[in-house]
Amino acid sequence: MRPVPEAPAVPAAVRPAGAAGSVTVREYGTRYLRISVRYHGDARFSWLRAPGPAHDRPQTAPSPAAGVALRRVDAAIADAGSGAGSGAGAGSGAGAPSGAGRGARLALGERAAASESGERGGVVYRVPGAVSVARLLPSGDDTAFRLSVRALADLGRTLRQLHDVPWEFAEPVPPHHGVGRLLAWISGTAPDGDGARLRALAHDRLGARLWTRLTDWAVAAQEPPGRGGAVLLHGAPSTGWLVPSPAGDHSVLLTGEEVTGGDPALDLGWVLGELHELRSAAARGLGAAGQGPPVNYPAAARSLLAGYLRKEDAAAAVEALPAGTARAATLRLAVHMRDFASFVGWHEDLRRYADLLAETLDADGAPTLRW
User: Taking CA 298 as the corner, what is the angle to CA 292 and CA 303, rounded to the nearest 5 degrees?
Assistant: First the structure.
């Protein structure tokens, strides 16, 4: 279930030919965020993420110390991709993740200038492509699928790089915004119209036992990690933040607005939860995923996991993932369902999404790890 269907991907939207100066090639979004993609020539694009009328918090950059750590991680990824480095996490001393020695580069957002955003403000990212994996993966095009699977492996490596960095900064750990939105919805404190309608429906569909389980998992996700401590987290990794280069040489991950610290399961589970939702929606005929061409979502998830796991952990697969990954993936399913109702509006498919959430909760999130 996508917030708003994106405009069809066409060659001109990927690399416009003969465009003079800057030109807007794509615009989409919800009441929470509006995204504008502009082409600047020579395979250079900018993505502006501007707040919509329902956006409830300032878009802030990472703390200075976290920003330094992010740039170090990106430099290590760049070195690994060029063969000049080992790809180890910034200052961690840890080895590189399994697979080819590269990951998705971190495109760090910067405050948009008035000339780019007008009165809306927002954060702008400089990237080499106009279309994210969210659009490419389900397109039915073989080349787009291969590009997406490769980008997901890159994403897995990058998340592992980030998670090798302990949160040992002077600044306090920022809240996880996605989990925060979920908690506000669960408690009924979010000013939602259709979100409140969904809350009543979900409470009925889940029943008291599973509603309590969802609440407990969300509360626990906002608490400081136990043994091992907090690590550097992207905060909201997804296929919509992952942008491959049309040339296929590298991918970038839009990074900055959601950066926090916490349990690595939150980042990895966020992506697996999205892929589980897409696979389940396709199987049940829900939303765009259910109406589109067949997609090998298990191959996409396995590519992500192959990038994330170290060589010595690859055989153990699920057992080697951070504890709590299945729970985090289930929370991601709940957050997206909540966000759709609150920021897009009511859709009758939400009834069946609530049933999917109930089934996933009842199984302790296990279906999100079965690939």
Answer: 115
**pLDDT(121) > 90:** no
Close Cβ partners of 239 (under 8 Å, ≥ 6 residues apart): 132, 133, 134, 137, 148, 152, 271, 274, 275
Q: Tell me the C-alpha distance between 234 and 232, whole Å.
A: 7
90 has a pLDDT exceeding 80: no
| Dihedral angle sign, alpha carbons of residues 115, 119, 120, 121 | positive
CA–CA separation, 210 and 365 (whole Å): 12
pLDDT tens, 174-219? 999 999 999 999 999 987 789 999 999 999 999 999 999 999 999 9
Are 100 and 156 in contact by the 8 Å Cβ rule? The answer is: no
Q: Give the global pTM.
A: 0.89
What residue ranges in the chain does DSSP mark as E strands? 23-29, 33-39, 45-51, 105-108, 110-111, 123-127, 231-233, 242-244, 251-255, 260-262
pLDDT at position 244, please?
A: 95
Q: Within 10 Å of residue 193's Cβ, how many Cβ atoms?
A: 11
Instruction: List phi, psi (to 5°) of 233.
Output: -120, 145
